[in-house]
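Quick one - inputs below.
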Amino acid sequence: MKMPELDRDVLARRDEIVTALKSIVADGGVIDDAAGLRAYECDGLSAYRQRPMVVVLPENTEEVSQLLRYCHDNGIKVVARGSGTSLSGGSLPLGDSVVLGLGKFNRILDIDYANRCVVTQPGVANLAISHAVAEESFYYAPDPSSQIVCSIGGNIAENSGGVHCLKYGLTTNNVLGVEMVLINGDIVRFGGKHLDAPGYDMLGLITGSEGLLGVITEVTVRILRKPPTARALLLGFDKAEAAGDCVAAIIGAGIVPGGMEMMDRPAIKATEEFVQAGYPLDVEALLIVELDGPEVEVDYLIGRVEEIAKNNGAGYLRISENEDEREKFWAGRKAAFPAVGRLAPDYYCMDGTIPRAKLPQVLARIRELSDQYGLAVANVFHAGDGNLHPLIMYDANNPGELEKTEEFGGEILKYCVEVGGVLTGEHGVGVEKRDLMGSMFTETDLNQQQRVKCAFDPSSLLNPGKVFPTLHRCAELGRVHVHRGEIRFPNIPRF
Amino acid sequence: MADETLQPSSADELADIVAQAADAGAALKVQGRGTKDGWGRPVDAPLAVSTAGLAGISLYEPEELVLSAAAGTPISAIRQSLEQHNQFLPFEPPDLGPLWGAEPDSGTLGGVIAANLSGSRRLQAGAARDHLLGFEAVNGRGELFKSGGRVVKNVTGFDLSKLMAGSFGTLGVMTSITIKVLPNPEKTRTVLIYGLNETTGVEALSRALQSPLEVNGAAYLPAPAAARSTVDYVSGSGKSVTAIRLQGPGPSVETRCDEMRALMGEFGEVEELHFHNSKTLWEEIGNVGGLLGEDDSILWRLSVAPTDGPAVAQDIANGCGGEAYFDWGGGLIWLSLPADGGCHDGDVRGAVAAKGGHATLMRAPENVRREVFVFEPQAAAVAGIQANLKTSFDPKLILNPGRMYPETGGGG
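Output:
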């Protein structure tokens, strides 16, 4: 993985830079010793590691503004970091970068039930927002699997998803406003407790921009009333195709479950051995379908899904009759990653999205590739929205096996694109999928995206080396080429 | 008005036109069928380019809940196709064209997206921007580019769909659009509460929206607006009407409707509307024109925090008179001011700024729209970024120049 060249001049001035940063933030807010820096050398994608030049932990927006202005004026790269749970290397440091940690932004500022929103600092954990409003039976809907620790600011940077996104939307559909600091230190606000943007939809653009456009210092999110009831069905199929058809039939019938998850045989086996959730072992595919809402609606829809499942050949069918049972259905799915982790020294989690109907075809291709590469795969799948998480098992101690695994993963993702899908559904591009971007986008597409980056950060100091496979200079991208071809539209006035 | 309108029949031809206009530095007015021409600042361009020649649905997979169509496809054709499969556009785009004199239901899909049109369901289902999965467009360099895809869960690269929705053709000319669609709800009921004042009405809406009864429409019509409805239960009362919509599976809606009536009973006299009356009422609320009297009044659309709605409206009414009604639980205010009332954008924007939010001048004579900001002026730093964004797509500033903000500085 080629990262931007180290800036020797910046590295030579390290002591001076550290002193300057210490003058901006309160005591203890700068980490510059080797032991302290080690904690920041990777995020959730631990195959990649790089110790940063220095870490700074500001406490308020004004400090962030001063820090960014200083880095801007001195040409120093900045990598923003929330809780460091990115699965795509989104907060992987650069050797000559300042890592700007938002961990001290840990307060919820305002809970407004009448307007159904919460204003919070970005370092607050996703689940802490739901906990803060639980007493009034509200919650924050997007639920990435790392929600106990992952920060809401990081969720916005990555446009995080989760099981509930099928019904309640991704982060982008649940954020109302942000305060953000630009690389030059300017503090701006997009959105608030009201809806829609007055000009261009900056909030929509910022969400999922992977730390390339600015640093978020405050967030307003929408909260929802907790559904009074949730019940789940556990459905087993002897063919992946039948499970896929069942998913399509449920969605096609106008039913949007609160969650709809699929596991293939290897994933079922691994989890059953690990947590004994009571899953059937003689099926090729297992579906968990959860309905939530008013009790009468849930009971009615459970009946309809049951009928659809039977019509689509579900040989195994159980319906949760109480909360314990519902939670047991989920226990296996929630333990799927660690369960697979027991089967091999290492595993690599992929994240493509495909049109739902292509599921059997894609699963078949993954099996083929699995044989070809000699690496086992277990599949868990947000079936409702076509988001696939193949877990490739490997051993990093075998020379070359990580590279082989990455190549295998790359082949899966390229196939997702080939069947009409995309490279990443919720984990982000980061460094991990950066070099695959060309399989989904043309150079023109990517240049347009990079020009958007230039509109915010013309010197490319914010999180460089992420998302884009080739870094162009903004001046080069801004050049206008004159076409001067055949004049086919003589009515266009010439000046 | 442009002297001539080009109507390319392919995306490549459109790209050629824009490339040549870019070479020449010639401004282009960008439009679909021009039904929302009166929305925004006047565009001074000798030449217009229309997407009306790019029409047709290229992909519609009902069980995948996805539809792709050329940008110039009439929105009525999209609705018809969806209706055949008992599906609909979840963001419920209103038909605003008639506000500026266009025929009803005569706009394009591209126009709906470019204006980020969303109706009463906005508060639960999201806006047009939340349903735009991907697009292809020609930027101001005359280059065809794409962003997004055809699946909902997608975080691959910057989400340019969000930028394109609501950019009024100033960043690119969309050629193809992919949206998420949904099956029609099985059943619809609207609970009406009669005779509440603005403050209590919005309080009732807030209470309804905080309940677990899954409200997807929440509006308040003062008596004069209610009186103009064609739904007898609304117009016949002679009172203000607070309206709460419930949709979903049959048994669920019936139970929720009973519970909502009980919940709202403490606010006032309660009635309920069934499917057809509901449909008519919410169309009237979305389309505005029928509920706000005069055809030549000055129209504003204000977006504020829902609980601030009544105070903002009252503040404006005190100084300017006029009429208003509320959607989005109080957060969306449609405001009609007399054309010669002597009230200016400063009066309206001042009231909104006091609470936070933004105001759009939706209908006003051309000379007024030249002189005042149509879209909310932005803070200097934001205006700077927006101007940079415009240049990043359209370096020669040829696409709908000035439609949203004067090109010199981008507002503020």
